[in-house]
Design brief:
The protein has 273 residues and is an alpha/beta fold. It has two domains: 2-128, Rossmann fold; 143-271, Immunoglobulin-like (Sandwich), CATH 2.60.40. It has helices at residues 11-25, 33-36, 43-53, 69-82, 111-114, 116-128, and strands at residues 2-5, 30-31, 56-61, 88-93, 109-110, 143-150, 154-161, 171-176, 183-187, 193-202, 208-216, 227-233, 243-247, 252-255, 257-259, 264-265, 269-271. The strands form three sheets. Strands 9-12-7-6-15-16 form a six-stranded mixed β-sheet, with no helix packed on it. A six-stranded antiparallel β-sheet has the order 10-11-8-13-14-17, with no helix packed on it. It is elongated. The N and C termini lie far apart (47 Å).
């Protein structure tokens, strides 16, 4: 039995792991509360069954999970069983918190520093005992943005990382029909950056758009340190802001979800030509 010990706050990170493990090992082998505990079940009885049957316990360590009494009982129970050789406890570091002293001797999986795909690969390798598996599930989105301001004057776009560090952030700020002469761009209140203005960039689904490419010179986005982009009108105009795209690979930018006071934007992708 593979037991996923976590707090509900970290479910956006834990659920893609659970789904991938279910694909590989089967639902009955993975104890994940969303499907292991059904309406009408005794929660304590089900948890006890999962803990008794566990062979691997993956403890998703975060600031919030360390405060959870239930999660503490789960991993401490697994730690006791590990001394008898009946269970392995593997910490998975979700945010920048410190590892509990009792687990410092355990080699942990650093999802916060290396990303969710690398963490899923390591988790599967631990269970399978080999390194031949290549993960394919991509259900988690770490980045999002929110924007505010007056499009006839200046708008501020705050790009955030929800859980993990983004070590090399690079973005396209889509500005539709706006031109280089109409709009200026600033990063983190004057911080140096690379990039430039691009015209008629083709999207994968057909239309084209103007955009600013922008990336900081050094540094990273973390849950505690967002990236702030400011677009300012240089002349009487309306800033035609249409969204933010993140470089997810050498050839692919992916739209990240965003919101203002009035709504949200969904994800889509295009290839760079």
């Amino acid at each position: 039995m593979i037991f996923l010990s976590h707090t509900y706050v970290d479910k956006p990170v834990v659920e893609p792991v659970a789904l991938r493990l279910r694909e590989i090992f089967g639902e009955a082998t993975v104890f994940y509360d969303a499907w292991s505990i059904q309406p009408g079940d005794g929660i304590i009885a089900k948890m006890n069954h999962g803990l008794d049957a566990q062979k691997f316990l993956f403890f998703f360590v975060s600031e919030q999970s360390l405060k959870s009494k239930m999660v503490s009982l789960e991993w401490q129970n697994a730690l006791h069983k590990s001394t008898k050789g009946t269970c392995r406890i593997i910490p998975v570091r979700v945010d920048g918190c410190s590892m509990p002293p009792l687990l410092l001797q355990n080699l942990y999986i650093d999802m916060h520093a290396h990303g969710i795909e690398a963490a899923i690969l390591q988790i599967v390798n631990v269970v399978q005992g080999n390194s031949s598996f290549t993960p394919q599930h991509k259900g988690f989105s770490n980045l999002s943005y929110e924007w505010e301001g007056d499009p006839t004057k200046k708008i501020t776009i705050t790009i955030r990382a929800s859980h993990l560090m983004e070590p090399n952030p690079e973005f396209l700020i889509l500005v539709g029909a706006s031109t280089r002469e109409e709009v200026s761009i600033d990063l983190n209140h004057g911080s140096p950056h690379r990039g430039g203005f691009e015209e008629e960039v083709p999207l994968q689904n057909g239309p084209k758009t103007n955009c600013f490419a922008i990336a900081p010179l050094g540094g990273a986005i973390t849950p505690q340190r967002p990236m702030i982009v400011t677009l300012e009108a240089l002349k009487p105009t309306v800033i035609d802001f249409r969204g933010v795209m993140h470089r997810s690979s050498n050839e692919l930018f992916t739209m990240i979800s965003g919101k203002n006071l009035g709504g949200t934007r969904g994800p889509f992708s295009f290839k760079v030509f």
